[in-house]
Amino acid sequence: MRYKNIREEELKNKVGADWFKQFDTTEIIGNIDFTVFPQQDNLFGRTPLLWAEAKTGNFDVATMFVQLILTIGKARTFDKTMPPAFLGAFDFKKVAFVPYINIQDIFYLNDFNWNVTPSNHETKEFQLIKQRIEATLKQNTYVYDYQKDEKELQTFIKNNLAKATTTSKLKIDKNNFIPIYLRWLEIVKPIIDVNWDDLKKANILDSDFYLADLFVDDKDTQNIGDDLSIRENLFVMFQNEGYKIAKENLKQMFDANIMLKNKDTYLHFWKRYKRPPLKEFQDYIIERRDLLVPQDIRERKGAFFTPRIWVELSQKYLTDYLGENWQDEYYIWDCAAGTGNLLAGLTNKYNIYASTLDQADVNVMHERIDHGANLLKNNVFQFDFLNDDFFKLPQSLQDIINDEEKRKKLVVYINPPYAEVSSIGIKGKSGVNQSKTHTKFSNELGGAGRELFAQFLFRIFSEVKGCIIGEFSTLKIFNGSAFNSFRNNFKSNYENGFIAPAYTFDNVKGKFPIGFKIWNTSKINNISKIEIDVYNVKSEYIGIKAFYVNHNKNNYINNWISSFKIDKDFIGFLAGTNGNDFQQNAIVYLLNSKDQMANPRGIWVNHSNLIQVSIYYTVRKLIEHTWIIHNDQFLYPNNKWILDKEFQNDSLTYILFHEKNNIQSQFGTNHWIPFTEYEVNAQAKFESNFMTHFIKGKIKQEAQTTDLFSSAISPNRVSNPVRAIEVTDASRKAADENVKLQFSDEAVAVFDAGRELWKYYHAQKDVNVNASLYDIREYFQGRNDKGRMNSKSNDATYSQLIANLRSKLSVLADKIKPKVYEYGFLKE
Hints:
By secondary structure, the chain is of the alpha/beta class. The protein contains 30 helices and 24 strands. This is Site-specific DNA-methyltransferase (adenine-specific).
């Protein structure tokens, strides 16, 4: 009981000092509890020796290893750094080791949800991993009691961990060939003189060149090793200091050698590693070339795990729509099947078809069939849905597609790829959207053609007309601003569906919804509104969400605010007017000057559009972003806001006291001080009294308009009769009247709270007399080592004052919110 009754951090320190003092145990990698590295770098950098899980209680070995595996798998740590020779786990009584190589395959499971909490031992995923590794651990784990096995433990560390650092060149094995590939992508791939886009069309990938490099014999770098079986399995060979496409059917396309742009860089890289790989791992590396898949190809192939809870729920929705016997009455085709995860749970294997881009995934599905998966091998096949012709499909599936009545009994059931051009914008990964489908339907797809899931849906709609579609995708199909053309042409009838948080899907990040939607392509419907069920992360039903389908590209809030552009007398700049939905709200800022940020898109602010800018900012910032409303669009409002002076003045109050307005006096004159010098006992005169003059009516507001196409500012001009309201002479006079602004009680409370904060600031020594709210916060809160403003202050009085201001502003926000919907900026 050597380390009993101590905390985890102390346990890790003591284990490091007692057993690994000749190594470096101070480095932190992600959420891994304990790491061991050699003390010094060698010529080729440091390779970790051990990653370990630490526990203060008395745990069984398997449980500790499962938590470590889930921690590593969730973060994909092995993609970011070279994995160690061993994984370990220890508690206060014992320590255990297992060679990393013995459990590596677990990290490349295609049909596994890594997006779970590793410390939650009750999840299905935790139990599944535990079942899979228990047999491996029994055969390959070394377990030592700190007291009973002291000498054996010291010997193990000396003969295993220590010796992992003695080789001058790193041997290539199944343990490290993937991390080496990731380094190869950064260093070697850019110096290969070839058009990668042309190669991709021939299904030759960069990983084929990497494999060619791996199987070079270091004793003769001119040529591949002599093993003919290896040669037969390579698409590319290295020879004569360059590469040669190896397969006969491709020789006509690439009959010349592909050369290196920089041979010195190539040779320097491979000096670090001993080639070819160890003999016992060569077959494994060739067989598992499917693991060498960079992110853009993974996205293109749709390598995204659909969580079991959503698979089961989607099949329930299909049953509710099509009837209890639908699996016997309908045919099912997953044309983006990956390894068939979405088809788990379906019962009638004679009616199921599965196709996927990658033959390696077909092989996995065939292997699963050999072990009991409920599919037919003849119905599982390689097919590039966005490029291949339908005559390549099995004849039985062609017969269904070519028969109008049978098509009505076909369910295309898919979780298609999510890749889009903008998400893969780095050099060498553009063009992910290029396909025959995109070329054929480019006009109908419009901007949606940048996204692969839209291409899948439109080919199905157009060429398998009459079928049922059950598909997982984002909600851009309903309200994405780039999807107007798609919506106007994809005239299928939405039948039913649900949304769930995207972050519950493997390899998907961000707080936005992914929806499962059922479409009937035999019904023509240009929908304007859909209602969809909402489920939380625990698969609990929490209500219904409405989505409004926008068919008019000019019907967005940014078109509205753009009608109020000005060209003189600037007091600030509104940035972020290039995104219309909630996910873009973070880029909306109020700045002193356009130069304050790098290339912001927006409009300048002066007295004539101050109210409209305040409304825009308030509407965008007022409602908290959640995953459910992530894609909700802010719209061109109706005209009712024009006569609502209280709403306008509430919005002005909100922008003045909102902490994200980003006005900073260091970037120019601060025209946004909402008080006079006398109100806050300022120590000197302000550079600008613009805002108090504006509030007192000393600066004339020009009349307001909603006319998108008019440069004149007049409420007589109404561009859209749907938005029009009656504008009488009396109401026009009220709108134009140059009088002191009148504020609601809630807004007055905000001003009062703000005034006390400003007064407290100006009572301090050596303050900036022209300080903005941002400057005041920075003064009291300070900045951390990374240069970011701290979230809290040690000044108790300030903390109380800023809390009071936030509270009053929150009350004002609640008052404004109903007007946001009443005036059409958002739809409920």
